[in-house]
Amino acid sequence: MNRAEPGRTEILSNFALEDRVAVVTGAGSGVGEGIALSFAGVGAHVVIAELNPSTAEATAEKIRTLGRRALPIAVDVTKSDQVESMMSRILSEFGRIDILVNNVGGVYLRRVPLLDMTVDTWDSVINLNLKGTFLCTRSVAKVMCDQKKGSIINIASGAGEWAYPDMVAYGAAKAGVINFTRAVAVYLAPHNIRVNCIAPGAIATPEAARVYKGQWRAEQTGVPLGRVGTPRDVAFAAIYLASPAADYVTGITLDVNGGPPQGRFILKQSEEIWEMDKIRYGGK
């Protein structure tokens, strides 16, 4: 190997988060917990911002067993005063914030089409998925601007990129997260703050199992890679976007979905068309 070329250790070190302070919202379970534990696994200290104090503490205990500092904070990220109080507490404890992952979100209650949706359900979904991302980003951006560095990662969804008629509010909120990411990435770039987005597909979590119920087989059948995702699949993408390896990456949406949604169905349809064409054109 040429001495000027980076070695394996140097390359891998660029994916580490050694002693970084990361805030992960909704880290008490599911994808948020997966991200929090994976961050700790590569050296970060983690703030678990979670509505449920007991699940927040459970995640914190797992992080401590990895030798990293953990700070569980019970917070409703849709409330501005609670978000500001949380940021003040984090700064008092750690003195800085290097990474923010806006993970809080959900379909809320049940999947319903437009004509069955109430205004209260619409408002709840928008607040949970979009308002919380706005409030946390606005608050942490003030800190990161003073630091002249930071990484913000927003968790959106494939529902924000594709049409799902039974998730109209959720899809609209996640599409908002994606556009919010792009706009804020441009705005904060002069301050050396990177803002990126991850759009997961079907991920196996307790919340997803509640929403999808018996639909996992259909979801898996449509995924080109032949399986639903796991929280670790999303976490590894988050590690990359948070790490020095992605220092020249901002404003993107990274799909973590096993391939284009319903890709297997589309492939099957294409194969049927090809077979029909062979018959029609004499096997050519």
The CATH H-level homologous superfamily: NAD(P)-binding Rossmann-like Domain
Spatial sequence of strands, sheet with the most strands: 3-2-1-4-5-6-7
Q: State the secondary-structure class.
A: alpha/beta
Rounded to an integer, what's the Rg over CA atoms?
21 Å
Rounded to the nearest angstrom, the distance between the terminal CA atoms is: 49 Å
How many domains make up the 3D coordinates? 1
List low-confidence stretches: none
**Biggest pleated-sheet summary:** 7 strands, parallel
Average pLDDT rating: 89
Number of helices: 10
Considering DSSP H and I runs of 4 or more, what fraction of the residues is helical?
40-55%
Spell out the helices and strands N to C. Answer: HEHEHEHEHEHEHHHEH
Oligomer: single chain
Question: If you had to describe this structure to a student in words, what would you say it looks like?
Answer:
- With 284 residues, this protein is an alpha/beta fold.
- It has a single domain (15-280), classed as NAD(P)-binding Rossmann-like Domain (Rossmann fold, 3-Layer(aba) Sandwich).
- Helices cover 49% and strands 13% of the residues.
- The chain has helices spanning 8-13, 30-41, 53-64, 80-94, 119-147, 168-188, 206-212, 216-222, 231-242, 263-280; strands spanning 21-25, 45-50, 70-74, 99-102, 150-155, 193-200, 253-256.
- Strands 3-2-1-4-5-6-7 form a 7-stranded parallel sheet, with helices on both faces.
- Strand 2 (45-50), helix 3 and strand 3 form a beta-alpha-beta unit.
- Helix 2 packs across helix 9 (231-242) and helix 4 packs parallel to helix 5.
- The chain starts with 7 loop residues before the first helix and ends with a helix.
